[in-house]
């Protein structure tokens, strides 16, 4: 939005929200698009007059409780909620726990890319969703306990996840992959300091893995974005692919994709995986 003021944000997001998505039936008569001011007031537990004053900039110091109520009523993403808090002159709240919800829109998106290995991870690198091509490349995670479907546990832990992980090397150099995962976990702890599961994950890995502890104490570590990786496949041998990490704004998810340039051995190996998965499904 060109106008970042609280009132402008409020009006814009109210106009954007379909009344049906908020539980209000559509009127048979023609009406302006978006949620009515009266409907927003009802959803947020505020008076219509106060909502009007907020939109007009006459109520200049809304409390955190008011901003949170408005954000919930408007069904804002986390990033939008934080923007609304900042526009009100308030610090955005820190989310208490790592999110594990994969929105339907993200599922639809990754579902359309079924010819590529794709996995969706939470901020703590727990695997939340994967497709058949991911299974073909990395093995089937469904046989692991949910707690072991975590990339950090697979790299540094002593449980089943470690033995499930196929050997992976990085073109960025030895331990670049491990270093980046630890850096991501440090960032996650900063964002979710009250998450007991995340704290237990880090404390547990520091206990069982001296190498994890060394990386955790290191400074200036780069986060994971993309790399050229070689996976040791039990049937196809070494498979070298481009690995890219895409983030989902507002959901704090990571979509990991594997691709190969045309006419490369990696592209041929991916095609063999597709053919094998298609044959198994028939």
From TrEMBL:
- Molecular function in Gene Ontology: DNA binding
This protein is called what? Transcriptional regulator with XRE-family HTH domain
Q: Which InterPro entries match?
A: Cro/C1-type_HTH, Lambda_DNA-bd_dom_sf, MLTR_LBD
The record places domain HTH cro/C1-type at 26-81
Cited SMART domains = HTH_XRE
Taxonomic classification, please? Answer: Bacteria, Bacillati, Actinomycetota, Actinomycetes, Micromonosporales
One Pfam match, given by its short name, reads HTH_31
Q: Which domain of life is it from?
A: Bacteria
């Amino acid at each position: 939005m060109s106008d970042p003021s609280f009132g402008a944000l409020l009006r814009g997001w109210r106009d954007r929200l379909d009344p049906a998505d908020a539980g209000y039936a559509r009127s048979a008569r023609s009406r302006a698009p978006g949620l009515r001011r009266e409907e927003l007031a009802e959803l947020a537990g505020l008076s219509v007059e106060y909502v009007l004053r907020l939109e007009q900039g006459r109520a200049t110091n809304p409390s955190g409780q008011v901003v949170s109520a408005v954000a919930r009523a408007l069904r804002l993403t986390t990033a939008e909620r934080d923007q609304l808090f900042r526009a009100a002159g308030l610090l955005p709240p820190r989310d208490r726990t790592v999110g594990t919800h994969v929105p339907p829109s993200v599922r639809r998106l990754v579902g359309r890319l079924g010819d590529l290995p794709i996995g969706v991870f939470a901020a703590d690198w727990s695997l939340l969703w994967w497709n058949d091509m991911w299974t073909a490349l990395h093995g089937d995670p469904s046989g692991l306990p949910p707690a072991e479907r975590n990339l950090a546990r697979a790299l540094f832990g002593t449980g089943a996840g470690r033995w499930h992980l196929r050997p992976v090397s990085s073109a960025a150099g030895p331990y670049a992959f491990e270093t980046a995962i630890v850096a991501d976990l440090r960032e996650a702890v900063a964002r979710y300091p009250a998450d007991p599961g995340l704290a237990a994950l880090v404390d547990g890995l520091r206990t069982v893995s001296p190498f994890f502890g060394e990386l955790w104490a290191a400074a200036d570590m780069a986060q994971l974005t993309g790399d050229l990786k070689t996976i040791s496949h039990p049937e196809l041998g070494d498979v070298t692919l481009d690995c890219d990490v895409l983030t989902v704004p507002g959901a704090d998810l990571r979509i990991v994709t594997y691709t190969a340039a045309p006419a490369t051995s990696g592209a041929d190996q991916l095609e063999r995986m597709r053919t094998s998965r298609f044959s198994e499904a028939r």
